[in-house]
């Protein structure tokens, strides 16, 4: 087993991995950005190293900085968690090439074969796993989309090769939409995954999302055929309740599958992964065609069509559902495989007991289209407990919300002896979850536990987006929701809590100091630079201000001019103007991706572009100035 593992991630998944390491007697190392100096995963780790400024591309996605931190900490392995660099085959290869450091995950070659969607489709087809009708080579011309639609029918899904969670996916309803949708999908693919390759699939009208958890080992037992890995599948999860292709609630086993269909899907997953010579943990995702006229008491039979969707070559957010059903610690199995010990289980050891549901506790307002919170502090944080209740988190009461990355605060996992008990226990646990100071989707989850379609288990991936009554969501938010806390405190003597972070050779040390009656320490202005902000890295341009007393580096807005601001948090996909351009009212100045949708940012009045304050790929917060007109 390893001596020290660096976890190349943040938040609850970093803590989750560190807990498994601690139980195995393995020391842990955290990496963190400037925005995460005081984050929970930093507090939990044995050591912590700064890898750059808040922008993910300059910190958590900086593979060189992560490997350098591993060397500095004398770590002998790196676990990527999920997201960030977890499915980056180039990063996996970099770790594999680093002397004395082991990659905890599938080999980079296997990631290349199964992580790229067209490669994975070819591999699965070769293993006789059913795939959705589609292309096995990248598509570059709109005419190819139109020809595919003419042959297979509309709608057509255009998907980014490196995509996931709905990013880089566009739906084409007619030939006229092909050109714009193709351009948009390629642009998102390049912005999020540095890969503008896309492929086509027939878009299923009534799909369920069912995925199979696997763990695999090249293994000393040699149970599999020659040239194949030994694969154990740990049952399926149903992730059909989604918002814009982003999972919200996951459960297992699927309430819709018959035992015969469940066995067919599990065997298809095992067969496909084994043929690809895949090792470590992974998830094989399928789309299952739901029968809209099905009696909830009659599960989908063995003849039901199902199709391979993709392989996630990493641990997933919802792995906890499978752990609750099997009692198997999937992260420990990852560590055992990577260290050479091999799997501690065989297929005959796997038994699924009861039912489990995971609720993602996101800092989002479901009543406003699941808009992510832009601020907040956990004034009260008291998660539920009791038999069958698990909470994976990294934040604690008093922590501020960090909005530079994803919106997840925690995951609530509930287990029961059957689905009915699990649902009842979930109602109790969500009602107990005491969160104040941050808006969350807990009210939405409580609503779903009274939703007839969800309770019947007949919902599809489109149900939440197309059929759930928005007024009911708003009512739930009004009844059970919380509001962001105010950062001001005007009562009593001013208390300044100074938290100093000292870095010696990149290693983090923390010093806390409390003073009464002392002024707060000023922070660097928009044009300034804070200590440890990653000197030499690309910085965001200064923010414009119409305040005559604006901070250093601010850009004034001339009288009669216009400061075009971001109306929501998101990522800049394209900037369509430059300094000196003439812009008319209604013209698009840039494209902002937020909540899985592209949003055109337009000029209200028009004028001449005086300055541009963002670039393609930048993350922005609500209220950030994007472009100034004069």
The tally of beta strands, per DSSP, is 32
Bin the strand percentage: 25-35%
Can you tell me the residue ranges where pLDDT is under 50 for at least 5 consecutive residues? 220-227, 487-491, 520-553
Q: What percentage of residues falls in helices of 4 or more residues?
A: 25-40%
Structural class, by secondary structure, is alpha+beta
Largest sheet: 8 strands, antiparallel
Radius of gyration: 25 Å
Q: What would the average pLDDT be, to the nearest integer?
A: 87
What is the CA-CA span between the terminal residues? 63 Å
How do the strands line up in the largest sheet?
A: 13-12-9-10-11-14-19-18
Helices, by number, come to 16
Shape: globular
Description:
The chain has 630 residues and is an alpha+beta fold. An eight-stranded antiparallel sheet has the order 13-12-9-10-11-14-19-18, sandwiched between helices. A five-stranded parallel sheet has the order 3-2-1-4-5. Strands 25-32-30-27 form a four-stranded antiparallel sheet, with no helix packed on it. It is globular, with a radius of gyration of 25 Å. Residues 220-227, 487-491 and 520-553 have low confidence and may be disordered.
Could you outline the blueprint of secondary structure elements for this entry?
Elements: E1 4-7, H1 11-23, E2 27-33, H2 40-44, E3 47-52, H3 63-72, E4 77-79, H4 89-97, E5 102-103, H5 108-115, H6 117-126, H7 142-152, E6 156-164, E7 167-172, H8 178-193, E8 198-202, E9 207-217, E10 230-243, E11 246-252, H9 259-275, E12 280-289, E13 306-312, H10 319-326, H11 330-339, E14 355-362, E15 364-365, E16 371-372, E17 380-382, E18 389-393, E19 408-416, H12 419-432, E20 434-436, H13 442-448, H14 452-456, H15 463-466, H16 470-480, E21 495-504, E22 507-516, E23 544-545, E24 555-556, E25 562-565, E26 570-575, E27 582-584, E28 588-594, E29 597-602, E30 606-612, E31 619-620, E32 625-629
Parallel strand pairs: 1-2, 1-4, 2-3, 4-5, 23-24
Antiparallel strand pairs: 6-7, 6-8, 9-10, 9-12, 10-11, 11-14, 12-13, 14-19, 15-16, 17-20, 18-19, 21-22, 25-32, 26-28, 26-31, 27-30, 28-29, 30-32
Helix pairs in contact: 4-5, 5-6, 13-16
């Amino acid at each position: 087993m390893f001596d020290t593992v660096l976890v190349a991630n943040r938040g609850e998944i970093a803590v989750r991995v560190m807990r498994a390491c601690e139980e195995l007697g393995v020391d842990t190392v955290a990496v963190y950005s400037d925005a995460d100096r005081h984050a929970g995963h930093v507090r939990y780790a044995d050591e912590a190293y700064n890898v750059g400024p808040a922008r993910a591309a300059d910190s958590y996605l900086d593979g060189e900085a992560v490997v350098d931190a591993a060397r500095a900490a004398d770590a002998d392995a790196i676990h990527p968690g999920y997201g960030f660099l977890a499915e980056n085959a180039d990063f996996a290869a970099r770790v594999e090439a680093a002397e004395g450091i082991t990659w905890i995950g599938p080999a980079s070659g296997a990631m290349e074969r199964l992580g790229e969607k067209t490669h994975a489709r070819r591999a699965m087809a070769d293993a006789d796993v059913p795939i959705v009708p589609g292309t096995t080579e990248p598509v570059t011309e709109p005419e190819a989309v139109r020809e595919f639609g003419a042959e297979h029918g509309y709608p057509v899904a255009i998907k980014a090769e490196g995509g996931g969670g709905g990013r880089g996916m566009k739906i084409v309803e007619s030939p006229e939409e092909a050109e714009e949708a193709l351009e948009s999908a390629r642009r998102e693919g390049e912005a999020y995954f540095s890969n503008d390759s896309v492929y086509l699939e027939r878009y299923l009208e009534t799909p369920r999302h069912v995925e199979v958890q696997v763990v695999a080992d090249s293994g000393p037992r040699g149970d599999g055929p020659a040239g194949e890995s030994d694969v154990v599948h740990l049952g399926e999860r149903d992730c059909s309740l989604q918002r814009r292709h982003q999972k919200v609630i996951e459960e297992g086993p699927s309430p819709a599958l018959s035992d015969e269909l469940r066995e067919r899907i599990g065997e298809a997953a095992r067969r496909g992964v084994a043929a690809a010579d895949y090792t470590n943990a992974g998830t094989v995702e399928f789309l299952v065609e739901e029968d809209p006229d099905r009696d909830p008491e009659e599960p989908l039979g063995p003849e039901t069509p199902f199709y391979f969707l993709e392989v996630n070559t990493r641990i997933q957010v919802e792995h906890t559902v499978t752990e609750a059903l099997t009692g198997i610690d999937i992260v420990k199995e990852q560590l055992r495989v990577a260290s050479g010990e091999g799997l501690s289980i065989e297929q005959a050891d796997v038994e699924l007991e009861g039912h489990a549901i995971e609720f993602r506790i996101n800092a989002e307002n479901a009543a406003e289209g699941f808009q992510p919170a832009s601020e907040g502090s956990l004034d009260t944080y008291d998660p539920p407990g009791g038999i069958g209740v698990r909470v994976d988190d990294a934040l604690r009461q008093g922590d501020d919300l960090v909005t530079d990355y994803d919106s997840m605060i925690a995951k609530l996992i509930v287990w029961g002896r059957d689905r009915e008990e699990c649902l009842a226990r979930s109602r109790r646990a969500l009602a107990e979850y005491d969160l104040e100071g941050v808006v969350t989707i807990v009210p939405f989850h409580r609503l779903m536990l009274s939703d007839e379609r969800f309770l019947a288990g007949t919902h599809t991936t489109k149900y939440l987006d197309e059929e759930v009554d928005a007024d009911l969501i708003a009512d739930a938010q009004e009844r059970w929701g919380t509001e962001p806390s105010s950062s001001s405190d005007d009562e009593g003597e001013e208390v300044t809590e100074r938290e100093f972070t000292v870095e010696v050779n990149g290693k983090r040390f923390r010093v806390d100091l409390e003073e009464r009656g002392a002024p707060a320490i000023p922070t660097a202005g928009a044009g300034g630079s804070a200590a440890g902000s990653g000197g030499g890295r690309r910085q965001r341009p200064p923010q414009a201000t119409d305040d005559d007393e604006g901070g250093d580096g601010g850009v004034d807005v001339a009288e009669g001019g216009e400061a075009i601001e971001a109306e929501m948090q998101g990522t800049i996909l394209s900037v369509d103007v430059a300094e000196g351009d003439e812009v008319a009212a209604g013209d698009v100045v840039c494209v902002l991706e937020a909540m899985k949708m592209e949003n055109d940012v337009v000029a209200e009045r028009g004028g001449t572009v005086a300055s541009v304050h963002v670039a393609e790929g930048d993350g922005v917060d609500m209220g950030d100035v994007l472009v100034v007109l004069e």
